[in-house]
Automatic annotation (TrEMBL):
The protein's name in its UniProt record: Protein tyrosine phosphatase
Keyword Signal in record: yes
Biological classification of the source: Bacteria, Pseudomonadati, Pseudomonadota, Alphaproteobacteria, Sphingomonadales
Protein origin, superkingdom: Bacteria
Family, similarity comment: Belongs to the protein-tyrosine phosphatase family.
Segment forming the signal sequence: 1-20
Amino acid sequence: MRIIPSAVALALLASLPGSAVVARSQPIATATASAHQRLLPLQGGRNFRDLGGYATGDGRHVKWGLLYRSGSMHGLTAADYAELQRRGLRVVCDLRDTRERAAEPVDWPAQGAPRVLSDDYLLDTRDFLPAGAMKDWTAAAAQAAMTASYPKMLVQFRGQYRRMFAELLAGHAPLAFNCSAGKDRTGIAAALLLTALGVPRATVIDDYLLTNRYLDAAKLLASPAQADTPWAHLPPGVTAALAAADRRYIEAALAVLDRHPGGATGWLRDEMGLSAGDITRLRTAYLD
């Protein structure tokens, strides 16, 4: 197996058997008005965003301060930990592989740390990147490979996405989910969650595209998980294609949901184990 270090193309995580649906364990409080901003005010955050405020098709809105998406949390400072503790962060679904977590560990404080859920696996991207020698890759080939990889994430990482939904159904929020860049694995997780909550497709895609505003690709490639790897030496056009949040990538994943019998609702039922009642409970808990 050839393991390619990556946090820009990095699209895949190991699967974990899905959890059964459980009842909410305790009431969920929403954040205060001061927290109503898309990008969190963190000194060392990487693409760390609140999913609150998005309007649903029936006129409701995603609650602020309960659902977060992020890249690696390795750079968080003491002040950042204090900010997340103030926000009541309870659970982190860390989608990174074993090597990524070792290269960029997160030193949560002893008191008030969230429960961190992760799987031990090594990310093998052989089937998700351009064929041939890396030096011969082109931007177009990288874009095509990334587009092809997104539907495969839905299968390969089904278990961790199911676990995220189970945690949310259990009322374990505020909850954050992250990978290294906060773009690919995290981008699909966010798209699935927003879709389950009834957020329109255009808004789901717009949220995905915000990575192009909030992720500094140069800093990402200089991070401990990426330094001294081939990713730091690719032609600029290829690097840009791999680091970008391209709407074609997320649309390729969402097209799988659309083709499923019953559309997105049927896919969420059959692949995420979300019944109609579960969807109603999610929307009751996480929408205003």
